[in-house]
Amino acid sequence: xxxxxxxxxxxxxxxxxxxxxxxxxxxxxxxxYWYKQSAKKPLELMFVYxxxxxxxxxxxxxxxxxxxxxxxxxxLHLHTLQPEDSALYLCASSQDQAGEAxxxxxxxxxxxxxx
Amino acid sequence: xxxxxQPTEMTATxxxxxxxxxxxxxxxxxxxxxxxxxxxxxxxxxxxxxxxxLEEKGRFSSFLSRSKGYSYLLLKELQMKDxxxxxxxxxxxxxxxxxxxxxxxxxxx
Lengths: 115, 109
Description:
heterodimer; A: mainly beta; globular; B: mainly beta; five-stranded antiparallel sheet
């Protein structure tokens, strides 16, 4: 099994749909992250969970709702999205939120298109 | 505000050397990271610098000057598989990662 797995890899949804992105990490890490990656823009941190508690919410619209049921799984629930939400959504994990190296391990992302 | 600057795109020739620069202005400094991201794939960790100087790892080296707010990633003996985007990120005083927009490196035969 790869370190961080994301499903689905591609998702097309209408503005009124409800869908969820799933992330699973098999590395025994304590922190998990959702990032948004748009073309030619820096990675945008959306949410951070440390030991299953949300520790960061960077002013993300409420149409994005995270869920972390345990330290290995992270979800991003999507509802009433806008076309500008179309992007690559990356999940990542790290041993701790702010360790000495804090190296992030990324999943391959979920490419979201909102029509 | 906090800012990371790196060139949008660079082109180099197979077998040559290329240097990708990154300058930063952040609230504090707790390390600088370089990640590689091939098209359609996950970013993967390349290097971490927290002290001034050069860190060498095979064909890749990363340099840091904290006083100048400057880093570079040096790629030697370029191979076609090095075609990718290279992301610079700085961890600030709150241990938050500030990311650059990435440099797309194109390798030509």
